[in-house]
Design a protein that fits this description.
The protein has 404 residues and is an alpha/beta fold. It is 43% helix and 20% strand. Helix 3 packs across helix 6. It is globular. The chain is built from 14 helices and 16 strands. The protein has an eight-stranded mixed β-barrel, surrounded by six helices. A five-stranded mixed β-sheet has the order 2-3-1-6-7, sandwiched between helices. It folds into three domains: 44 residues; 125 residues, Reverse transcriptase/Diguanylate cyclase domain (Alpha-Beta Plaits), CATH 3.30.70; 204 residues, EAL domain (TIM Barrel), CATH 3.20.20.
């Protein structure tokens, strides 16, 4: 009823505006009624359900001491109602799922809820994907010193910082607000030891390496990024130790700027010793434009080096990895198919191992396997997994590759 009343006034306002264009002068009360009707119409176009849901979330956030909040915005191709239903069906007992317009809020209440919700967010990040992209997620820690609205604002800010690719679609803003004290402040580490991205052998689809999933704080500095790599080594060592299979290695993608840091090799050696992980079981993925002197410095630590290759010119003495944007759609793009086929063929001639990452299409994965690509990773072959699932994957019966 209210929506119809507002729409009627909006329609009359449009008539008044049209008559004004042709020179008709309206009485004063009608001149005032026109903008008033427009405002009323816009007000009733808002969804009261969304406002009520937000108010409900504010109430839930009040006086929470051990909780965390996630805001999720799904791909444009997926209706918000479907995402809300999926998350509500898979929620845990201490989680509250609320749809707020086009976004879904999840409040988790338990000791250590921030790390627990971040682990859950890694799973949602991998599962809430569609041809049009992946879900964007922002996770924040709830702290009693802040107003409930501040938590929502922080979660929205984290969500807006999330990018469109799967590697950038999750932003963890877990820094706890600290009182002003003398001395340096230390940020808590955001390491989640029990989750990793599996890297699968194309020959038998067995587990070859694990790539630990760790959180990077917003506005990360160079030291933060170095700390992240050291945390990933700790996490990877814990995972492969739990698997009990010495042939499974650990893979880490290095930030292009960090790979040039002259202090990184020394830090890597220290982290490997601390984690008791043999250097030969760690593979560092670097960008194709990394200087040779930086690669050689990293190689002297005993780690394996894998260099990104987007064309045949970048094939050198090291193993190579193919970015997801290069291999996406090779099943349908003949030119892209020929380029990737040429890269893989030349690498195979040189005896260089080839890894294809971020595969989202099973057809692309099958073609790469048939080309002779040695290892594969991404949602098309195995989504982000818990350590328990990795154990199941590593002990599963082997099956023949699609290449036959």
């Amino acid at each position: 009823m209210h929506g119809l009343w507002g729409a009627q006034f909006a329609g009359r306002a449009g008539i008044v505006a049209a008559l004004a264009l042709v020179g008709w002068s309206a009485p004063a009360f009608m001149t005032l009624a026109a903008p008033l009707a427009v405002l009323l119409a816009l007000r009733w176009r808002r969804t009261p359900d969304r406002d009520a849901a937000r108010a409900h979330l504010v109430d839930l956030l009040s006086n929470r001491t051990e909780a965390a909040l996630a805001l999720i915005e799904g791909p444009k191709a997926v209706p918000p109602a479907r995402i809300h239903h999926q998350l509500d069906q898979t929620r845990e007992p201490d989680e509250t799922v609320i749809r707020i317009g086009a976004r879904v809020a999840i409040l988790k209440e338990q000791p250590g809820a921030d790390a627990a919700l971040a682990r859950r967010a890694c799973v949602w990040q991998a599962s809430l994907t569609a041809p049009g992209g992946c879900a964007r997620i922002g996770v924040v820690r709830v702290h009693p010193q802040l107003w409930p609205e501040d938590h929502i604002t922080r979660a929205e800010a984290a969500l807006l910082r999330a990018g469109g690719s799967q590697d950038e679609s999750l932003v963890l803003d877990l820094d706890r607000p600290m009182p002003t004290v003398a001395g340096p402040k230390r940020k808590p580490k955001a390491t989640f030891h029990r989750f990793a991205r599996p890297i699968i052998r194309a020959s038998d689809r067995g587990l070859h390496m694990v790539e630990p999933i760790c959180g990077l704080p917003p506005n990360a500095t160079a030291k933060d990024r170095q700390r992240l790599v050291l945390d990933q080594i700790d996490a990877g060592a814990a995972i492969v130790a739990g698997l009990g299979q010495p042939e499974v290695g650990v893979a880490i993608r290095l930030d292009p700027d960090l790979s040039r840091d002259p202090d990184l090799p020394r830090a890597l050696s220290f982290a490997l010793d601390t984690a008791e992980l043999p250097a030969s079981r760690l593979t560092l993925h670097v960008s194709g434009d990394t200087p040779m002197h930086a690669i050689e410095a990293l190689e002297r630590t005993g780690c394996r080096i894998c260099v990104a290759a987007i064309d045949t010119k970048l094939i050198g003495p090291h193993d190579i990895w193919l970015p997801g944007e290069l291999t996406l759609g090779i099943a349908r793009d003949a030119g892209r198919h020929d380029l990737v086929s040429d890269i893989v063929a030349r690498a195979n001639i040189r005896g260089i191992e080839v890894l294809a990452v971020d595969l989202s299409d099973a057809a692309d994965a099958d073609i790469l396997s048939g080309m002779g690509c040695d290892t594969l990773s991404g949602g098309a072959v195995a989504s982000i997994m818990e350590e328990r699932a990795l154990v199941n994957l590593s002990t599963a019966p082997r099956r023949a590759s699609h290449a036959g």
